[in-house]
Specification:
A: 514 residues; alpha/beta; Purple Acid Phosphatase, chain A, domain 2; 6-stranded mixed β-sheet; 11 helices; 20 strands; 21% strand; globular; B: 444 residues; alpha+beta; 50s Ribosomal Protein L17, Chain: A; 4-stranded antiparallel β-sheet; 3-stranded antiparallel β-sheet; 7 strands; 13% strand; elongated
Chain lengths: 514, 444
C-alpha cells in the first residue's frame, strides 16, 4: 500500500535519519515595475483623467491594428467598414468602427458623491451638526461592500469614450463582458436614437512575451560570460490568505505549513518539499489590518466616542507578531516574497507598496538592509502588489486579488480564471482602477498597463484553486493560477518551474468528534 | 544517549505533567533528528499502551493522496453555474484554441488526525505515502489547536543557536544561500512590553528559592542575550553615562534585552516623579531595597534575582541600565519623525499615577498550559488600565480609555539548555504575571 520508507511507525532501535536534503538557489530577479516614487516625489494632486488618457494613448495602436486585421475586409450589405478617429465623429447610419475606453454606468456602483450627500443629510437630520461633521471627516470608510455592481433591473449603460466625448453603446449582452476602463474597438452603426449598435469588438490581446531567460541571457552576453549551464529549476510555492487573527484558530494549520516547508513533517515529502525554492505569499497574511475601516467598524467607532488621531489602545500586535514568527521559522531555509493584500497594513491604493520591515523584527534579519538595496534575492523580499519578477527565467505577474474581485463585480456569471485571462488580453491588470478601485494617480506612464506578457499570472485569495493555460496570437502561452485562501482551504499551490506543471498540497486536520 | 533520555523525558512530560508533546518539540528538547523523534514517540506510545491501554493518546500525520471526492478542488472547469466569458459572441474572432483540456491537478494531502479517527481517515486515502505520530498527549485531545502550544514552546525555549544551522541537528531542509544579518534593536523591540510583565515578583520569589538558583539564571540569561543581541553592544555613552564607570559586558547585554520602551518613557519625564517613587516601591520590593540601600528610580522589581547575591554586579547593572535609558531617551528625543508617539506614551502613563484611575493587571492564561504550574505555559497577561487622555486636535477633553495589551509570554531566552532544569522554570513561573504593571508604574 505504501512505500516502507514513509512509514515511521516503528520503535527502537531507531534507524539512522535520512540524509539532509538541501535546496537549490532560486534564480530570482524582481522587477520594480510597481514601485512608486518615494516620499515627496509621490504626488496625489493629479487628476485621474490622465490615467485614462495614457491608457488609451498607449493601447490605441495595438487595438487599431487588431481591428484593421479583422475588419478591413468586412462588408455589410455592400458597405465597407471604415475607421473613425474620434467617437464623436461617428455619423448616423454609417458602418464604421471606433476605438475608445469603456465606461459602465451602473446604478449599484459606489459613488462618492452619493456617499457624501447621504452622510451630510443624515448628519443634518441628527441636528448634532458640528460634532458629527467633524467626526466624519476624521476617518475614511471603505465603500459599501457589494457583491456586484450589476443592477437587478438591467438598466446599466455602457459607453465608449475618448478625449472627444462619449458614445452610448448598445448590443446584446455586451454589458456582461466588458468593464470600465478597458480599451476596445467597436464595429457598428449609430442608430436613430444616437446609440451605437455594436456588431463586433476587438481588443489588444496578449502583448509580446519574453523568452525564458531572456533578460538573463542578454546580460550574460553583454558581460561576455560563457553561457553556464543552469541548474534544473525547482518549484515555486504560492500561498495566500493566511488570515492570521492572533487567536488560537489559525495555529495548527500554520504549524503544519511550517513543518511541511521546512521538511520536517511526513516521510518522503521531506525530499519533495526540498524542491521548493521559493515561497510567494500573495496577500492577506493578516486578517484585519487594513488602515481603512469597513463601514461597520466605521459606524461603531463613530457611535462609540470621539477620539481624534491615532488610538493606540485599539491596536493589537499579536497577528503581526505571529506572522513575523511564522516567517522567521521558514526563512532559514526558504526565500520568501511577500505581497501585501487588501487586509494587510500597507497603503490601500494600488499599487500597494511593500510592507514595512518594521513589522518583522525577527524575520527582517533575512532581508538585505533596506538602506542598501530594495530587493533581497535570497531571504525575505517584501514586494509590491501587483508584483512582477523573473523567477527561474519565467516572467511572473501576481496580485493579491483585489483587481480581480473588483472586476468580477461588474459582470455576472464569469469565472475568475476567464476574467484573469481577459485582463491579460485587454493588457490592463486593473481596468477598474481608478473607477472603483483605489489607485495612485499615475501621470505619464501607467504600470498597470501590461507591456510584456507574463508566463505565469496568479491572483491570490480566491475561493478555490483553479489553473489553466491561455494562448496568444503570436504563440504566447501563459499559465493562469487562482490561488485559494489558505485559511479556508489549507492549500498551497506548487508550480514546477521546469514544466509549468501545477500541483497543490493540502494541509488539514480532522476535526475531533466528541 | 538521547535514546535513554527520551523515555524519562516523555514520561515526565506526558504522564506526570499531562502536557502534549509533538515530535518537533521532542527533537528540539533532545537535540535529535525529527525522524528519530517520530520513532521515539511511537516507541513510547506502544510501550505505554501495552502497559496500560489508553494511558497515552496519539495524533497521526498522514501524507498521501485522498480519494477523488476531495479532488474537485483541484479540478477546473466543471462548475456549472458559471458561463465562460469567452463564449461571448464578441470574442469569436479570437485565434485561440478552445478549451485546452485540463489534466487533473495532482493534490497531496497532509492530514493531522487523532488515533480515534485514524482508521476512518485512512480509508479516505487512495494512497498513503507516509504516516507518523505527530503528537502524544495524556487524553484524547478535543481541540487540535492546542497542539500549537508545542511549537510556541519551541519558539520560546529552543530558539537559541543559529537558525541557519538547525538542519544539522533536526534534519530540516538546508539552504546554503540564505544569509542572515544581525539587526540592531530587533529582539528588544520584539518584546518590550512583555519584559515589564514578566518581571513582577521575580525578585521576591527568587529570594525564596535559595541561593543556588539565582546565579545560574543570571549567567544563562546573560550569555543568551549576548548571542542574540550582539548587534546592540556598542553603547555611546550619554551625558550621564560618562560619569559612571563602565561595567561588565554581560550586564550590558542583559540590559539590552531589558531595554524597554517604557523605561525610556519613564525617564523622559521630569525628575519630579522620582520623589514619590521610593515610597511606592517599598511595599513591593522590600527585600531588594534592604539589600541595596539607596536604590534609584529604577524599580528594582525589574532586576534579576542576582542582585541579592552580588551587590557589585547589581550596582553595575543599574548603571548600565541608566546609560541605556539615557541613550534611549536621546533616541526618542531625536526621533522627529513621529512626534506623537512619545507624547502619547507619556500621557497615557502619567494618567494612572496622577489621577485616581485604576490599573488592573488581569491575568488570563491561554487554556491548556497552566496545569501543574511548574511548566510555564503560554500566558497572556492582559493589562487594563484606565487612561486619561487628551488630544490636541479640536476638543480639549479628557476621557477614560481602557487600554489593554495582550501578548504572548515570550520567555526570557534562556534556551541554552534543554528544559531539563524544571526547577529553574518553576521559579520563573511563580514570578510571572502579577504585579507587573504596578512595578512599571512605579518606575514611571
Amino acid at each position: 500500500m505504501a512505500s516502507s520508507d514513509g512509514i515511521l511507525l516503528k520503535g527502537a532501535p531507531f534507524e539512522d535519519a535520512a540524509a539532509v536534503s538541501s535546496r537549490n538557489a532560486s534564480a530570482y530577479r524582481p522587477l520594480h515595475t510597481f514601485e512608486l516614487p518615494k516620499g515627496s516625489e509621490k504626488h496625489y494632486a493629479h487628476q485621474f483623467a490622465d490615467m485614462y488618457f495614457v491608457r488609451l494613448a498607449q493601447l490605441k495602436e495595438a487595438v487599431k491594428q487588431k481591428a484593421h486585421e479583422a475588419w478591413d475586409a468586412f462588408e455589410l450589405a455592400g458597405d465597407k467598414a471604415k475607421y473613425v478617429e474620434r467617437v464623436l465623429d461617428v455619423r448616423q447610419g454609417e458602418l464604421c468602427w471606433v476605438v475608445g475606453t469603456v465606461y459602465m454606468e451602473m446604478a449599484m456602483k459606489p459613488n462618492v458623491l452619493d456617499d457624501i450627500s447621504k452622510e451630510v443629510h443624515k448628519t443634518l437630520l441628527r441636528l448634532s451638526v458640528h460634532a458629527q461633521l467633524t467626526a466624519t471627516q476624521h476617518w475614511i470608510a471603505a465603500p459599501p461592500p457589494r457583491q456586484t455592481y450589476v443592477s437587478p433591473s438591467g438598466t446599466d449603460d455602457m459607453m465608449l469614450e475618448d478625449e472627444s466625448g462619449r458614445l452610448r453603446v448598445a448590443g446584446n449582452s455586451l454589458n456582461s463582458h466588458y468593464v470600465t476602463g478597458c480599451i476596445l474597438a467597436a464595429l457598428g452603426t449609430e442608430q436613430a436614437d444616437g446609440s451605437f449598435q455594436v456588431i463586433a469588438t476587438q481588443y489588444a490581446d496578449l502583448p509580446r512575451q519574453p523568452q525564458r531567460w531572456e533578460t538573463e541571457d542578454a546580460s550574460l552576453t553583454l558581460a561576455k560570460d560563457p553561457m553556464s549551464k543552469r541548474e534544473k529549476a525547482g518549484k515555486l510555492a504560492i500561498v495566500s490568505g493566511l488570515d492570521l487573527t492572533g487567536k488560537e484558530e489559525d495555529n495548527v494549520a500554520l504549524d503544519l505549513l511550517v513543518e511541511y516547508l521546512s521538511g520536517e513533517a511526513g516521510g518522503p515529502d521531506q525530499t519533495s518539499a526540498s524542491s521548493i525554492t521559493r515561497l510567494v505569499i500573495a496577500g492577506n497574511s493578516l486578517s484585519n489590518a487594513s488602515p481603512i475601516l469597513s463601514r461597520e467598524e466605521f459606524d461603531v467607532r463613530k457611535g462609540a466616542k470621539r477620539n481624534y488621531g491615532y488610538d493606540s489602545s485599539s491596536y493589537n500586535a499579536t497577528p503581526a507578531e505571529k506572522f513575523d514568527a511564522f516567517l522567521s521559522e521558514i526563512l532559514p531555509a526558504l526565500p520568501v516574497s511577500v505581497l501585501p493584500g487588501e487586509q494587510d497594513p500597507a497603503n490601500v491604493a494600488l499599487p500597494q507598496q511593500p510592507l514595512h520591515p518594521a513589522l518583522f523584527p525577527l524575520s527582517r534579519a533575512y532581508q538585505d538592509p533596506p538602506a542598501l538595496s530594495s530587493e533581497t534575492l535570497e531571504g525575505l523580499d517584501l514586494v509590491t502588489n501587483p508584483w512582477e519578477a523573473d523567477v527561474e527565467g519565467w516572467r511572473i505577474l501576481g496580485t493579491a486579488g483585489q483587481t480581480l474581485d473588483d472586476l468580477l463585480k461588474y459582470v455576472e456569471g464569469v469565472r475568475p480564471l476567464d476574467a484573469m485571462e481577459m485582463m491579460l488580453r485587454w493588457r490592463c491588470i486593473a481596468p477598474t482602477a481608478p473607477d472603483t478601485l483605489w489607485c495612485y494617480p499615475f501621470q505619464d506612464d501607467d504600470p498597470l498597463i501590461l507591456k510584456e506578457c507574463p508566463h505565469i499570472y496568479f491572483a491570490g485569495n480566491r475561493e478555490k484553486f483553479q489553473a489553466k493555460f491561455v494562448q496568444g496570437p503570436a504563440g504566447q502561452q501563459t499559465l493562469i493560477v487562482g490561488v485559494p485562501k489558505f485559511s479556508k482551504t489549507g492549500q498551497v499551490v506548487l508550480v514546477d518551474m521546469e514544466t509549468l506543471e501545477v500541483e497543490t498540497v493540502k494541509l488539514a486536520y480532522v476535526k475531533p468528534r466528541p | 544517549m538521547a535514546e535513554e533520555r527520551y523515555r524519562e523525558y516523555l514520561a515526565e512530560r506526558v504522564l506526570a505533567e499531562g502536557q502534549p508533546i509533538t515530535y518537533r518539540l521532542l527533537s528540539r528538547a533532545l537535540q535529535v533528528h525529527v525522524n528519530i523523534a517520530k520513532q521515539m514517540l511511537y516507541d513510547f506510545h506502544a510501550e505505554q499502551t501495552k502497559k496500560q491501554p489508553k494511558s497515552v493518546h496519539a495524533t497521526y500525520l498522514l501524507t498521501g493522496k485522498e480519494r477523488s471526492s476531495e479532488h474537485s478542488n483541484g479540478d477546473i472547469g466543471h462548475d456549472g453555474d458559471d458561463t465562460a466569458m469567452r463564449s461571448s459572441p464578441f470574442m469569436s474572432s479570437l485565434p485561440e484554441p478552445e478549451n485546452t483540456p485540463e489534466s487533473p491537478v495532482r493534490t497531496t494531502s497532509i492530514v493531522l488526525v487523532r488515533e480515534e479517527e485514524l482508521e476512518k481517515t485512512k480509508i479516505e486515502f487512495e494512497d498513503i505515502t507516509s504516516i507518523h505520530i505527530y503528537s502524544l498527549q495524556p487524553g484524547p485531545i478535543e481541540n487540535m489547536n492546542l497542539l500549537a502550544v508545542c511549537n510556541q514552546e519551541i519558539a520560546s525555549n529552543h530558539a537559541s543557536g543559529d537558525p541557519l544551522e538547525r538542519w544539522r541537528d533536526y534534519g530540516s531542509i538546508q539552504n546554503r544561500y540564505i544569509k542572515r544579518r544581525t539587526t540592531r534593536y530587533a529582539p528588544a523591540m520584539a518584546k518590550p512590553a512583555t519584559k515589564a510583565t514578566a518581571k513582577p515578583t521575580a525578585a521576591v520569589s527568587a529570594a525564596k528559592e535559595g541561593s543556588k538558583q539565582a546565579p545560574t539564571v543570571t549567567l544563562r540569561r546573560g550569555s543568551t542575550s549576548e548571542e542574540s543581541k550582539s548587534g546592540r553592544s556598542t553603547p555611546q555613552p550619554g551625558p550621564t553615562a560618562s560619569l559612571k564607570r563602565s561595567d561588565s559586558e554581560t550586564k550590558t547585554k542583559k540590559d539590552a534585552s531589558v531595554g524597554n520602551l517604557f523605561k525610556s518613557f519613564a525617564k523622559a519625564k521630569p525628575k519630579a516623579k522620582e520623589a514619590e517613587k521610593p515610597k511606592e516601591e517599598d511595599g513591593l520590593i522590600i527585600a531588594t531595597e534592604a539589600m541595596e540601600g539607596m536604590s534609584e528610580d529604577e524599580g528594582d522589581a525589574d532586576d534579576e534575582p542576582a542582585v541579592k547575591f552580588d551587590e557589585e554586579k547589581a550596582a553595575a547593572a543599574r548603571k548600565a541600565r541608566e546609560e541605556r535609558e539615557q541613550k534611549l531617551q536621546e533616541m526618542m528625543e531625536a526621533d522627529v519623525e513621529m512626534p506623537d508617539a512619545p507624547t502619547e506614551g507619556t500621557g497615557s502613563q502619567d494618567a494612572p499615577i496622577d489621577k485616581e484611575t485604576s490599573s488592573q493587571p488581569a491575568e488570563s492564561e491561554a487554556t491548556v498550559t497552566v496545569q501543574g504550574g511548574r511548566r510555564r505555559g503560554k500566558r497572556r497577561v492582559l493589562k487594563k488600565k484606565k487612561v486619561k487622555d487628551e488630544d490636541g486636535y479640536l476638543v480639549t477633553k479628557e476621557e477614560a480609555v481602557w487600554e489593554s495589551f495582550s501578548e504572548d509570554e515570550p520567555e526570557p531566552k534562556k534556551a541554552k539548555l534543554t528544559p531539563k532544569p524544571t526547577a529553574a522554570k518553576g521559579k520563573k513561573t511563580g514570578g510571572k504575571g502579577q504585579g507587573s504593571i504596578a512595578s512599571f508604574f512605579k518606575k514611571a
